[in-house]
Give the backbone structure.
Amino acid sequence: MIEPGGVAGRLWAGTMPGGLFRSDDGGESWSLNEALWHMPERRQWSGVAGGEQPGIDSVLIDPRNPGDIRIGVSTGGVWASTDGGISWRNINRGMYAEYMPPEQREQPIAQDVHRLARCATIPRSSGASTTTASSVRRMPVPLGTN
């Protein structure tokens, strides 16, 4: 998954095994987002398809604020950064995995996110699984930090 970064020449790429990379030169060179890679919670991300490595399937950049980033991790949930990737937090409140035992279905790290999408005409909105600065919802809600 490669996503334009809201700044000329900037691209973001999510990969397996859960790495997030940024290019500021149109893809000529890439750097790993070290803050996300070294988060202690990242060790809890499990693999997709029964044991492989976790994958970052979606990268959303707010077109009006390139420092506002959301990523979807299979299987690791939805994570947000409002400072361009310097720090990250899990925003899965309200999302649940139906396949998990009832006592674990709302565990933030258990969420198997395959795709996040932003509404092109209303950038702070999205469909199916949607995010705000503090949560993930199954109903359309704003994606912004306000």
The CA atoms of residues 2 and 13 lie 4 Å apart. Residues 126-146 have pLDDT under 50 and may be disordered. Strands lie at 2-4, 11-14, 20-23, 31-32, 55-62, 65-74, 77-81, 89-90, 130-131, 136-137.
